[in-house]
Records
---
Amino acid sequence: MTATIGDQRNSLNREPSRGIILVVDDNPANLQVLSSFLDQSSFEVWAARSGEKAIQRLDNDNLPDLILLDIMMPGIDGFETCKYLKSESNPRVRDIPIIFMTALSDTADKVKGLRLGAVDYITKPFQYEEVLVRIEQQLKLRNLTKTLIAKNAELQQIQTQLIHAEKVATLGQMTAAIAHEVNNPINFIAGNLNFIEQYFQEIVNLLELYQKYLPDPPYEIQNAIKTKDISYLLNDFSKIIQSMQLGTDRVTEIVSSLNKFSRYGEAGKKLANLHEGLETTLLILGHRLKSNAHRPTIKLIK
């Protein structure tokens, strides 16, 4: 049978619980006396008469802070119960400290219990002050371990954030460097495209003058004009120049977006255009919105 002991006293006069202790012993007298003593010491006590009942009790969401486990019990004895609770298949209860209660004084039995995962032994007949001290020490150790684990998790989270911030800063530097390196040649190309377009137009004008005043060139020239389709070449060349101009404008826009996105070299707070920041980000991420083998195009609604 599983029961909660210690509700006899008036709850209004009861000190706050110092923790939950699960006592597992098949001897009703031992169970009653030990539970009563722990209850008077302001612990909440759960009681179980067998290893099977103790395991069932631990299936609940709420778990004890410590287990007092008798070794000599019918059915699943204390060693088997401890082995089951400390197995890798029970991650919820593995860290609950287990103190064996035994009348055995054989060193081999004590070593066996410690190797199974127990943290301490209490020898029968009980010295209750000793029991209380051992319980308090193990609970302090467990609380300290929990605190260390929480602090370690907090430090790991901070470390992750610092690494992420460092990566972002490095990415900003690299982005600014790439934008700077790309900006120079693209400006050179964009500037020369204006001259190419101007020179091309001048060549077209000269060809038109030539056709106007020399409509009947030699046969070889006439044949070359027909073969090369000069009209198509001039028309397509103009489109190529326009396409190159659009491409350089696009690269210039991307470089500008990278500079704005990285904000490298800027310090302190200043006003920023939120819409410009969003457009810059969307421009950089635009290629990821396109369809691929796993999904269709992502439609962005602003």
---
Amino acid sequence: MTTVETAPATPLTWRPPAGALWSGRWVDGASTMPVHDPEDGRLLGHVTDTSPTEVHQAVTDVATAVASGASWPAWKRREALEEAAALVLRHRERLAEVISREGCKTLREANGEVCRAAETLRLSARQTDRLTGETLPFSDTSRGEGRLGWYTREPVGVVAAITPFNDPLNLVAHKVGPALAGGNGVVLKPAEATPLTALALAEILLNAGVPAGRLAVVPGTGSGAGHALVSHPLVDLVSFTGGHRTGNAVASAAGARKTLMELGGNNAVLVLDDADTRAAAQSVVAGAFGVAGQNCLSVQRVFVSARIAAPFLRDVTAATEKLRVGRKADPRTDIGPLISEREARRVEEWVREACERGAVAHTGGRRDGAFHWPTVLTDVPADAKVMTEEIFGPVLVVEPINTVDEAVARANDTRYGLQAGIFTTALDTALDIAERLRVGAVMINDSSDFRIDAMPFGGPKRSGVGREGVRYAVEAMTEPKVVAVRRGA
């Protein structure tokens, strides 16, 4: 694998109008925080480190705009979101640059994310004509005689959105798009590492026609801005994507109110003995190491039939060793850095722990600053962290299994349940396994790392609360209101 090359950094071609957005205008708060490129630590700029007092102002003003501001009918919401989708594509190059520079994606991966974000906004726009209710069966009971009624879907009010660093544009679009389509106001706290992308999208949304009073962006820390936001009494729904531990803190601070959470996964792929080992290996490697493994859908564990385990492992190792580790801006690069050197050190420590306990590293296991080389492990102890926890890094565990029952049991032996993959030519077997896997989605003859933005997204156990995916998020961010009429009164 190629070693990391360095090159001089160039200034960003886009700068936010100010360090935050609230009260219908771009503002610079009392305090700032720096934004660095994780590849080389170079300073990219500063944003507001929003204080709890400033968060209060932002939430209060958005709540006022929703409750008593100008009407924003569904057709205007649709037009604004459609225009935002078009503007995202029009500004694809500058958005991709911001995503890549402040985050961990290669420029090629960042370009792909821009296209997905535009699709997410388009899907959100299409939901505005589906915010319909239905008539209610008052005549089915004697107590309803002489009455008629219906329900409509109404916005919940103020949505607090907290997003992670790994998809800093599309995951913001997944929260803001459905919330606005439903007629809500949104206060967004982006990840500390990647606030510039969120500010860039906010500027696009305002230029597309989203009323300024209905959208606020409050960069800052989780303990400061984040806690103040999710605990604010005027917030009606909290939408959070991130780790389970932080999710617990968010739920505790939010208290008894509506929440929508996606909390990660420890995803398994099952490769049965009739699978095409080479095709399965290519899919697994792509699913494990994209975005340097910093993806909640990444393949982390593979359980492969013992009969084909040796050739499968050879193919996985060979495909992994062809991956190029290097600068994000280099179009030849496959694997960029982790979001910080601290995270790369954590991954390194987890791999070392497994190897000290008997695991075998077939390739990788090397770190250089924030870069960690893609690593393939076998013979991992069942209770090692790389097996039991979400590693969120470029590490893949491959283990042989003797029966389908064993594969299903081991795949389910985790506190997470986001997605899984199965490789087999036997459709009946695949469907049987899909029924038995306790996950939110099963990909047959594909890795766990597949999603379209229209899917219901989430899973049981520690993988979250509710479902994201545009249509399902709009449903969660609206609620039924009943109107009943008594005739002849």
